[in-house]
Amino acid sequence: MPSASPGRSSPLPGFGLSLGITILWLSLIILIPLSAVFVKSGSEGWHVFWAAAASPRALAAYRLSFGAAALAAAMNCLFGLLLAWVLVRYTFPGRRLLSAVIDLPFALPTAVAGIALTALYADTGIIGRFLEAAGLPVAYRPAGVVLALTFIGLPFVVRTVEPVLAAASSEVEEAALTLGATRLQTFWRVVLPTVAPALATGFALAFARGAGEYGSVIFIAGNVPYKSEIAPLLIVTQLEEYNYAGAAAIACVMLLISFALLLLLNLLQHWQQRRMA
Amino acid sequence: MTAAGLREPPAAKALLIAAAVIYIAVMLLLPLGAVLYEALRQGWNAWVSAVTDSDARESIKLTLIVAAISVPLNTIFGIAAAWAVAKFQFRGKTALIALIELPFSVSPVVSGLVFVLLFGAQGWFGPWLERHDIRIIFALPGLVLATLFVTFPFVARQLIPLMSAQGSADEEAALTLGASGWQAFWRVTLPNIRFGLLYGVLLCNARAMGEFGAVSVVSGHIRGETNTMPLQVEALYNDYDFVAAFAVASLLALLALVTLALKSALEWRYREELAAIH
Predict the structure, then answer these.
(1) Which end is more exposed in chain B, N or C (fewer Cβ atoms within 10 Å of the end residue's Cβ)?
(2) Which of B12, B167, B184 comes nearest A1 by C-beta?
(3) CATH code linked to domain B40-275
């Protein structure tokens, strides 16, 4: 198979056309529009940028968005690993249905998820009623943000861990058992280190998605400034007040953090591929 | 699972399966059930009148129009990107793939904001557009642009690994036998990737029809004019018209269920495509 040959000497036609379309479309739809955020956020000088991007209200919003995203991603690592394990290692009736349902958060529009969760967890809802009685209210407070982000992020972890768990040979586990390790020891010492890179990748994906999430959160969050206001909502608020530079400054901070995450993600995937090789 | 020693005690296995099933039932199925329950709470007639209300009908129409424009455009782009990335070697390929996947890590709100900064009243092109009486923000073009942004990677991301794994031996054979480049693409490549392509288009469409954050920023929320279905759900919900909000939401939930069913059906055909690599 010819693979190392440079583009121009490949026998297939269409390199210029396809790469041209790709770069043109990428520039028009993604790169030029994104650059507008950076240009606009700097357009009124460093002081204006800093006043908007680092205002106490903005800092509280980043803390909530990134903090809730981290908590939700951690929850999803726990249950995502459980689900991946059950799907890969066991056969039971309804396994394929369970597997299909896991992708529901990918398919269900976020606004629908948001109002559904609010209906369930508000103090009149069938779950919220009990939580309220137990003194653990969830809706209209930061806990509601974590709940919505947990809903949104689950498939990211399951779908990254699943193939790694499936590909991991059970020979090493068998060897550990033969050498006298208990099942739990084998899990901690053999299985967990094998899936750790995939788990970290899943965490990063769920975290990145959660930090920017808007639709599923705003219905259940309460949206009180300094308390339950997420960063994307603050951007919308700034826009509604025609404070374009302020909105761009907050967006700029969020983009930079996302790009840093993306870099980390690529490093993680590199690590994972080296492990698998 | 071959060695008996690798099996957990039956009780532990049953416990793990039960925990998984209960978690999915509470976290995922219950919200889905809540949408259908709330939508039909006041009976079938209330549901029908909510989804046939004129603003609701307009929102359905708008959602279909936005998807009908943005999905084909991103499909063409996805095929072109996959052809370039998978069939040729060039410098900067890894960076190109990373850039294609960039929209996945951008907040939907920021995806809409970028177009307001460009085309809004105070944006770069705002004054020029106003002089020429062209509306992009708070109108259909803005909704399409925001949707194009968020659904940008879906088709490309599905096709790149598939076409890379398939290589280009089939196409080269077709060329040797006298086919033109286009003929090789239509008769060889397209049949080879059809399930992967359908899969990507399906996910792209689900996101295009369900997108909320990005279109919310550029829509202006004019009922019967610039509200897509998810935005109509929000508008009705904020009016405390819960039955109508959940009725429109139930249509979107049905779309999600159809998407999941088709996705599962396509998944094993797609795996066959991946597995049939020579």
Answers:
(1) C
(2) B167
(3) 1.10.3720.10
